[in-house]
Amino acid sequence: MVSPNIELGPYFSHLFRDSPRRVLFTLAYYKFAAKMIGKNKRVLDLGCNEGLGTWLVAKECGFARGVDLDEEAITAAKINWPNNPSVEFSCSNFLEEQGSGDWDAVINFDVIEHILPQNVDSFWSFVSSSLKHDGIAIIGTPSLNSQQYSSPASKTGHVNVYSEDRLHTEMSDYFNHVFFFAGNDEVVHTGYLPMAQYFIGMGCKKIR
Amino acid sequence: MAQGDAESELDFWEKAKEQHGHQNFALGSNWSLSFQSDPKELVFALSRYKFAAKMLGRNSNILELGCGEGVGTPILSEFASSYTGVDPDNYAISSATQNWGSETCSFIKGDLLNSKFGQFDSIISIGIFDHIDPEIIDSFFDTIYQNLSNNGIGIVETLNQPTYNSTNVLHYPNQQKETNEDRLREYMGRIFNNVFIFAMNDEVMHTGSSAMAQHLFALGCYKK
User: Taking Cα atoms as reference points, which of A101, A133, A105, A95 lies closest to residue A45?
Assistant: First the structure.
């Protein structure tokens, strides 16, 4: 039996055509998260868009649910992975919800820079309340310093871009341990943060 | 321009040198030997320490188990509030103390098994795990557990050598080969709720296949 082709929705189709390297970078950060989370885990992917990264994490870690407020993106995700026991998708605005407290990991890439600053507290509350006591949060976002070099297209909607200090401080309000990684292109490293294009913060041992 | 008025390259360099001071030091005999025979080893060792230091963040009080001659002390202690290095090797400890002993950096000749040195935010052990007999390794992790504060983190690094040449496997030839990743995960998982594995080949840290990694790190937090 030939399995059906992966259908890209408007977002990933655009990326592949107009900025294909960003597909690589996005998936590379998901791969990093998958390695940190490990096997046989349940992962919540907030802001999953069309779910390509959600699927990578589901495949590596065991199970993932992708959530996004963009209905078109969720429809695209569901077309590729219908009735799959290891991955599911739902359309909702998690900022208005309370977390279920039963996830091993919450991941979130290229989302927090789109959240209005007045909603950031609801964002962190939802992340934290979604996690089990030993759950981990992995948050990736472009660095403030990278924005001066970014194309107008990639900056659209960036209403809340983080410096390393601010991301570290906010995460430290919710987690006892925050480990910080830098991303330049597809490489995740621990080098000099002011020159990083991308930050990945990993929070463990939630405080509240 | 008249040549006599202009400052030469050497003049500029002399000014730069004034900032360097004259606090010279010598590597201890182990690292001197290593640097003579394979200077790359120093790159790799410093890279391991740099990765550990980045995970600790700032203002940590650090215990290093198996500090040797303190080759990692400067990197680990640069942004730390204090650093304590422990090693059973008397010579290594005196070399480390001579080079790096200070108000905030101290060294203790001591046993790495079942010993209490204080309460620390971070405990690092690089290149020790693979030297400890599997039969007594529990007491090495006991040392980490006993010395770590409630909100502390631990980093254990090991050479990623297959363990199938150990005596266990000779006795049980059909036993499934354990990898060092499995062993690290298991031991760290006994004392930490969260364990993260990183790989290193040469000086490069990555999260690729641990089977192909030369060195492995386990980062543990949320003490049990």
Answer: A105
Do residue B222 and residue A134 have CB atoms under 8 angstroms apart?
A: yes
Instruction: For residue B44, tell me if it sits in a domain.
Output: yes
Domain hosting residue A91, numbered range: 10-206
Residues of A in contact with B54 (CB under 8 A): 180, 190
Question: Do residues A13 and A72 make contact, with C-beta atoms less than 8 angstroms apart?
Answer: no
Residue B27 tokens read as: 């590597």
CATH code, domain carrying B140 = 3.40.50.150
Q: Evaluate whether residue A3 is within a structural domain.
A: no
CB contact under 8 A, B207 and A32: yes
List, in order, residues 6 or more apart from B122 with CB less than 8 Å away.
Answer: B56, B60, B61, B62, B63, B80, B152, B153, B154, B155
Interatomic CA distance for residues A200 and A188, integer angstroms: 8
Please report, in tens digits, the pLDDT of each residue of chain A (208 residues total). Answer: 567 889 899 999 998 888 889 999 999 999 999 999 999 999 999 999 999 999 999 999 999 999 999 999 999 999 999 999 999 999 999 888 899 999 999 999 999 999 999 999 999 999 999 999 999 999 999 999 999 998 888 888 899 999 999 999 999 999 999 999 999 999 999 999 999 999 999 999 999 7
Print the domain residue range for B121: 30-176
User: Is residue A41, in this structure, part of any structural domain at all?
Assistant: yes
A99 located within any domain: yes
Residue B12 lies in a domain: no
- How far apart are alpha carbons B145 and B224 in whole angstroms? 9
* Residue A95 vs residues A113, A133, B204: alpha-carbon distances, Å: 14, 21, 38
In a domain, A1, yes or no: no
Q: Quick check: is B115 in a domain?
A: yes
Q: Looking at the domain assignment, is residue B34 inside a domain?
A: yes
Which residues in chain B are contacts of A35 at CB distance < 8 A? 197, 207
What's the CATH code of the domain at A82? 3.40.50.150
Q: Chain B interface, mutation test: which of A27, A169, A174, A190, most B Cβ atoms within 10 Å? A: A190
Helix residue spans in A62-115 (DSSP H): 71-80
